[in-house]
Amino acid sequence: MNEMTRENPLVSVVMAAYNAEEFIRPALESLFAQDWDPFEIIVVDDGSSDATAEIAESFDRIHCIRQENGGAAAARNAGAAAAKGEFVANFDSDDLLPPTRLTAQASYLVAHPEVGCVFGRQEWLNPPPWLARDSVYGDLDGIPLSSAMFRRTVLLEFGGYDTDFVQGEDTDLLIRMRAAGIPYHVLPDVVLYRRFHESSLTGGRTTHEPLLRSLRAKLEREQARPDVQE
Question: Per-residue pLDDT tens for 28-53?
Fold first, then answer.
Protein backbone atom coordinates (compact mmCIF):
# COMPACT_ATOMS: atom_id res chain seq x y z
CA MET A 1 0.00 0.00 0.00
CA ASN A 2 1.30 3.42 -0.93
CA GLU A 3 2.12 5.95 1.78
CA MET A 4 -1.00 7.83 2.75
CA THR A 5 -1.04 11.60 2.41
CA ARG A 6 -3.81 14.13 1.91
CA GLU A 7 -2.86 14.16 -1.77
CA ASN A 8 -2.87 10.35 -1.81
CA PRO A 9 -5.48 9.28 0.79
CA LEU A 10 -6.69 5.75 1.40
CA VAL A 11 -10.23 6.96 2.16
CA SER A 12 -12.45 9.39 0.27
CA VAL A 13 -15.70 10.48 1.92
CA VAL A 14 -18.45 11.41 -0.53
CA MET A 15 -21.39 13.51 0.65
CA ALA A 16 -24.28 14.06 -1.74
CA ALA A 17 -26.09 17.21 -0.61
CA TYR A 18 -29.25 18.93 -1.76
CA ASN A 19 -30.69 21.95 0.09
CA ALA A 20 -28.92 20.73 3.22
CA GLU A 21 -28.03 24.05 4.85
CA GLU A 22 -29.94 23.15 8.04
CA PHE A 23 -27.82 20.09 8.83
CA ILE A 24 -24.64 20.07 6.75
CA ARG A 25 -22.44 22.08 9.12
CA PRO A 26 -22.76 19.71 12.13
CA ALA A 27 -22.46 16.77 9.74
CA LEU A 28 -19.13 18.05 8.41
CA GLU A 29 -17.92 18.92 11.92
CA SER A 30 -18.48 15.31 12.96
CA LEU A 31 -16.48 14.22 9.92
CA PHE A 32 -13.55 16.44 10.86
CA ALA A 33 -13.59 14.84 14.34
CA GLN A 34 -12.58 11.44 12.93
CA ASP A 35 -9.64 9.68 14.57
CA TRP A 36 -8.49 8.44 11.13
CA ASP A 37 -6.21 10.63 9.05
CA PRO A 38 -5.60 11.45 6.26
CA PHE A 39 -8.83 11.27 4.31
CA GLU A 40 -10.38 13.18 1.44
CA ILE A 41 -13.75 14.96 1.61
CA ILE A 42 -15.88 15.48 -1.50
CA VAL A 43 -19.20 17.28 -1.21
CA VAL A 44 -21.38 17.13 -4.31
CA ASP A 45 -23.92 19.96 -4.24
CA ASP A 46 -26.75 18.59 -6.35
CA GLY A 47 -28.25 21.84 -7.60
CA SER A 48 -29.16 23.31 -4.21
CA SER A 49 -31.05 26.59 -4.07
CA ASP A 50 -29.87 27.39 -0.54
CA ALA A 51 -26.44 27.93 1.05
CA THR A 52 -25.38 24.28 1.03
CA ALA A 53 -22.36 24.78 -1.26
CA GLU A 54 -21.25 27.97 0.49
CA ILE A 55 -21.27 26.23 3.88
CA ALA A 56 -19.29 23.28 2.52
CA GLU A 57 -16.73 25.58 0.89
CA SER A 58 -16.24 27.44 4.17
CA PHE A 59 -14.38 24.39 5.51
CA ASP A 60 -10.74 23.74 4.69
CA ARG A 61 -9.84 20.58 2.75
CA ILE A 62 -13.27 20.10 1.20
CA HIS A 63 -13.53 19.57 -2.55
CA CYS A 64 -16.99 20.87 -3.42
CA ILE A 65 -18.48 19.89 -6.77
CA ARG A 66 -21.49 21.88 -7.96
CA GLN A 67 -23.78 20.29 -10.51
CA GLU A 68 -27.33 20.57 -11.80
CA ASN A 69 -29.88 18.59 -9.82
CA GLY A 70 -29.74 14.97 -10.89
CA GLY A 71 -30.63 13.08 -7.74
CA ALA A 72 -28.66 11.23 -5.08
CA ALA A 73 -27.43 8.50 -7.43
CA ALA A 74 -25.93 10.99 -9.88
CA ALA A 75 -24.35 12.99 -7.05
CA ARG A 76 -22.77 9.93 -5.48
CA ASN A 77 -21.46 8.81 -8.87
CA ALA A 78 -19.88 12.22 -9.44
CA GLY A 79 -18.19 12.04 -6.06
CA ALA A 80 -16.87 8.53 -6.65
CA ALA A 81 -15.55 9.54 -10.07
CA ALA A 82 -13.60 12.42 -8.50
CA ALA A 83 -12.34 10.39 -5.54
CA LYS A 84 -8.64 9.66 -5.15
CA GLY A 85 -8.98 7.11 -2.35
CA GLU A 86 -8.93 3.34 -2.63
CA PHE A 87 -11.99 3.28 -0.37
CA VAL A 88 -15.11 5.44 -0.85
CA ALA A 89 -17.35 6.09 2.15
CA ASN A 90 -20.88 7.43 1.82
CA PHE A 91 -22.10 10.06 4.27
CA ASP A 92 -25.49 11.76 4.09
CA SER A 93 -25.58 15.49 4.78
CA ASP A 94 -28.22 15.25 7.51
CA ASP A 95 -26.52 12.60 9.65
CA LEU A 96 -23.63 12.57 12.15
CA LEU A 97 -20.64 10.26 12.60
CA PRO A 98 -18.97 8.79 15.67
CA PRO A 99 -15.23 9.61 15.61
CA THR A 100 -14.30 5.95 15.01
CA ARG A 101 -16.32 5.38 11.82
CA LEU A 102 -13.54 5.65 9.23
CA THR A 103 -11.03 3.74 11.36
CA ALA A 104 -13.42 0.83 11.93
CA GLN A 105 -14.40 0.42 8.30
CA ALA A 106 -11.08 1.17 6.60
CA SER A 107 -9.22 -1.14 8.98
CA TYR A 108 -11.60 -3.97 8.14
CA LEU A 109 -11.20 -3.51 4.39
CA VAL A 110 -7.41 -3.40 4.72
CA ALA A 111 -7.46 -6.65 6.72
CA HIS A 112 -9.95 -8.37 4.37
CA PRO A 113 -8.98 -7.67 0.75
CA GLU A 114 -11.62 -10.10 -0.52
CA VAL A 115 -14.47 -7.93 0.82
CA GLY A 116 -15.87 -5.32 -1.57
CA CYS A 117 -17.95 -3.28 0.84
CA VAL A 118 -18.42 -2.88 4.58
CA PHE A 119 -21.44 -1.53 6.47
CA GLY A 120 -22.04 -0.74 10.12
CA ARG A 121 -24.82 -0.23 12.61
CA GLN A 122 -26.75 2.94 13.36
CA GLU A 123 -28.34 4.83 16.21
CA TRP A 124 -31.19 7.29 15.67
CA LEU A 125 -31.04 10.80 17.06
CA ASN A 126 -34.83 11.29 16.86
CA PRO A 127 -36.51 8.07 15.73
CA PRO A 128 -40.13 8.20 14.60
CA PRO A 129 -42.37 5.85 16.59
CA TRP A 130 -43.23 3.65 13.61
CA LEU A 131 -39.69 2.37 12.95
CA ALA A 132 -39.40 -1.41 13.27
CA ARG A 133 -36.45 -3.25 14.81
CA ASP A 134 -34.06 -5.42 12.83
CA SER A 135 -34.45 -9.14 13.56
CA VAL A 136 -30.69 -9.77 13.72
CA TYR A 137 -29.19 -6.81 15.58
CA GLY A 138 -32.36 -5.45 17.14
CA ASP A 139 -31.59 -1.97 15.83
CA LEU A 140 -34.29 0.42 14.72
CA ASP A 141 -34.67 0.31 10.93
CA GLY A 142 -31.93 -2.30 10.60
CA ILE A 143 -28.57 -1.82 8.89
CA PRO A 144 -28.31 1.51 7.01
CA LEU A 145 -27.08 1.09 3.45
CA SER A 146 -25.97 4.72 3.65
CA SER A 147 -23.23 3.55 6.03
CA ALA A 148 -21.37 1.84 3.18
CA MET A 149 -17.65 2.07 2.57
CA PHE A 150 -16.77 0.57 -0.81
CA ARG A 151 -13.63 -0.35 -2.60
CA ARG A 152 -13.59 2.24 -5.36
CA THR A 153 -12.74 -0.44 -7.92
CA VAL A 154 -16.02 -2.19 -7.07
CA LEU A 155 -18.05 0.99 -7.58
CA LEU A 156 -16.38 1.59 -10.93
CA GLU A 157 -16.78 -2.03 -12.01
CA PHE A 158 -20.55 -1.86 -11.49
CA GLY A 159 -20.93 1.55 -13.07
CA GLY A 160 -21.86 3.15 -9.76
CA TYR A 161 -25.45 3.83 -8.81
CA ASP A 162 -28.32 3.52 -11.28
CA THR A 163 -29.47 7.08 -11.90
CA ASP A 164 -32.95 5.87 -12.90
CA PHE A 165 -33.66 5.44 -9.19
CA VAL A 166 -35.05 8.36 -7.21
CA GLN A 167 -34.92 6.15 -4.10
CA GLY A 168 -33.42 2.74 -3.51
CA GLU A 169 -30.29 3.22 -5.61
CA ASP A 170 -28.17 1.77 -2.81
CA THR A 171 -30.41 -1.31 -2.53
CA ASP A 172 -30.15 -1.84 -6.28
CA LEU A 173 -26.34 -1.60 -6.20
CA LEU A 174 -26.13 -4.09 -3.33
CA ILE A 175 -28.36 -6.55 -5.18
CA ARG A 176 -26.16 -6.29 -8.28
CA MET A 177 -23.04 -6.84 -6.17
CA ARG A 178 -24.53 -9.87 -4.47
CA ALA A 179 -25.60 -11.33 -7.82
CA ALA A 180 -21.97 -11.02 -8.99
CA GLY A 181 -20.64 -12.70 -5.85
CA ILE A 182 -18.96 -9.62 -4.34
CA PRO A 183 -18.63 -10.23 -0.56
CA TYR A 184 -19.70 -7.56 1.91
CA HIS A 185 -19.63 -7.40 5.70
CA VAL A 186 -21.61 -5.71 8.47
CA LEU A 187 -19.54 -4.50 11.42
CA PRO A 188 -21.00 -4.66 14.94
CA ASP A 189 -19.82 -1.07 15.49
CA VAL A 190 -22.15 1.93 15.39
CA VAL A 191 -20.82 3.99 12.47
CA LEU A 192 -23.74 6.36 11.92
CA TYR A 193 -26.09 8.58 13.88
CA ARG A 194 -29.24 8.99 11.79
CA ARG A 195 -31.52 12.01 11.83
CA PHE A 196 -35.19 11.75 10.89
CA HIS A 197 -36.97 14.56 9.10
CA GLU A 198 -39.87 14.50 6.68
CA SER A 199 -37.93 15.94 3.75
CA SER A 200 -35.32 13.16 3.83
CA LEU A 201 -35.53 10.67 0.98
CA THR A 202 -34.43 7.84 3.27
CA GLY A 203 -35.87 8.99 6.55
CA GLY A 204 -39.52 9.05 5.59
CA ARG A 205 -41.85 6.19 4.74
CA THR A 206 -40.97 4.74 1.33
CA THR A 207 -42.50 2.14 -0.94
CA HIS A 208 -40.92 -1.18 -1.90
CA GLU A 209 -40.98 -0.30 -5.62
CA PRO A 210 -37.20 0.29 -6.00
CA LEU A 211 -36.38 -3.03 -4.31
CA LEU A 212 -38.95 -4.89 -6.38
CA ARG A 213 -37.61 -3.31 -9.58
CA SER A 214 -34.08 -4.43 -8.69
CA LEU A 215 -35.19 -7.96 -7.90
CA ARG A 216 -37.16 -8.13 -11.16
CA ALA A 217 -34.10 -6.97 -13.11
CA LYS A 218 -31.96 -9.55 -11.34
CA LEU A 219 -34.38 -12.33 -12.30
CA GLU A 220 -34.43 -11.12 -15.90
CA ARG A 221 -30.62 -11.19 -16.02
CA GLU A 222 -30.56 -14.73 -14.64
CA GLN A 223 -33.21 -15.92 -17.11
CA ALA A 224 -31.19 -14.44 -19.98
CA ARG A 225 -28.05 -16.37 -19.02
CA PRO A 226 -27.42 -19.27 -21.43
CA ASP A 227 -26.28 -21.58 -18.60
CA VAL A 228 -29.57 -21.29 -16.69
CA GLN A 229 -31.71 -24.36 -17.25
CA GLU A 230 -35.49 -24.18 -17.07
Answer: 999 999 999 999 999 999 999 999 99
CA–CA–CA angle 143, 30, 62 (5° rounding): 110
Q: Which of 46, 43, 44, 53 is nearest to 21 (CA)?
A: 53
Class of domain 11-224: alpha beta
Report the C-alpha gap between 44 and 54 in whole angstroms.
12
HEC secondary structure over 45-63? EECCCCCHHHHHHCCCCEE
Query: What per-residue confidence (pLDDT) applies to 211?
Result: 53
- What does DSSP say about strands 39-46 and 62-67: parallel, antiparallel, or unpaired? parallel
Residue burial 37-62, b: 16+ Cβ < 10 Å; e: rest: eebbbbbbbbbbeebbbebbeebeeb
* DSSP helix/strand/coil, 144: coil
Write phi, then psi, for 70 (nearest 5 degrees): -135, 0
Q: Give CA–CA dist 118/89, Å, rounded.
A: 9
Cα-based angle 148, 126, 65 (whole degrees, multiple of 5): 45
- Per-domain residue ranges of the chain: 11-224
CA angle 5/16/84 to nearest 5° reads 25
How many angstroms separate the first and last alpha carbons of the chain? 46
Main-chain phi, psi angles of 15, to 5 degrees: -115, 115
Please tell me the distance from the alpha carbon of residue 220 to that of residue 18, in angstroms, as a whole number.
34
